[in-house]
Amino acid sequence: MYYPSMKMTIDILDSELEDVIRFSGAKTKREAVVTAVAEYNRRGRLAELTRHAGTCSGLITAEELQAERRKN
Description:
This protein is mostly helical. It has helices spanning 14-24, 29-51, 62-71. It has 3 helices and no strands.
């Protein structure tokens, strides 16, 4: 499968990149940067999702769900 990518030159502090490599277990600098960007985006999507928590009026409560489970 082909994933389009973008080549670029960026300045990253050595200590920061070393930490990303250490924490992620990445084998290359590229893998470390790709992992860090993916993790940053994942956290952003989760933050967006949590802002919507409890805003849907069409969902049942935990108590209602437990009652339904007891019926069956």
